[in-house]
Amino acid sequence: MLPREPQLGLFWGTLARLMWLVGALGVVWALAYWLQVAQGPLSAPAGPGRPLLLNLLALLVSCGLVAWTAWRLNRPVEALHQAAGRVRDGDLDSRLDEQSTVREIREVNAGFNRMARELARVEQDRAVMLAGISHDLRTPLARLRLEAEMSVADPQALAHMAADIDQLNAIIDKFTDYARPDLPELQLVDLHHQLDLVRSRFASDSRLRLQVDPPAETLVWADPTDLQRVLVNLLENAARYARSDDGGPAEVVVRCEAQAKQVLVRVSDRGPGVPPAQLSLLTQPFFRGNVARTEATGAGLGLAIVEKALQRMRATLAFQNLPGRGLEVCIGLPRPSSAPQPPV
After folding, report:
1. Which of 104, 235, 243, 332 is least surrounded by Cβ atoms within 10 Å, i.e. has the fewest?
2. Are residues 137 and 215 in the same domain?
3. pTM here?
4. ∠ CA 213-216-219 to the nearest 5 degrees?
């Protein structure tokens, strides 16, 4: 029975199995050779070291052929694995070779390419549909606001109507952001500057008491627009759901921790937290925890947008309850190496 190597990659696992097979055949070959020698040679040997050298040469040639065979066998599978990873990350312009000499590989690659083209078409249709819906909804909302400002005499009623219209516009923005199909072009972004922009944006927000501890000019791979969207959504979520029991502002602390390959941005609040069973559900579209039900004024897409934007930037996202009270959201942004290249 061939040994199992679940911890190895496809190439090395196949190579290990073939090498094991070659080794077993080599042992059988050596035993047969020495049995023949023990019975007596049929003819005089050409030299005392020649059989050993021939055996070693045959073993080296066999190992080379095994490595080449494993590479040839695993090359199309590795290409399929990489293409599937690119499609998972949103790159739908991934194509595999449809001219392979092996019929099964050619058919699999053609099927994968058809699937990628169909997904790209669906994404494009969805983007066009959402753009049309957004335009069709914003036009009557703008007319409603203009008519309200011109015809409603009661200031309080006018303020309520304007707030409702602004909320509808914000919900449209959430749907549009969540459905964005395009992949951003990552660039080196100064995280210190981005956090300063966010801090100034929430400086006058009475719902939030924000403390930011930014690093000193730390560069990360990101898209500035998506990064701002992530940070704003996280702070908006905290301002809405992490307020104190007496109705006071939510206390939020943003800390950064620079590591070798990434920068961890931790957004911590002192709110009621989230039940442990619901932590894995926070990024599901339209999911609302028990705390959110009393203030269900949003679209239910805030954290789903955060997760999707971070996936587009090759970043990570994690949630955990703090000891005692509060929730911490941790995002990991990739850092540039000594030879800066965008993460893939």
Report:
1. 104
2. no
3. 0.56
4. 110
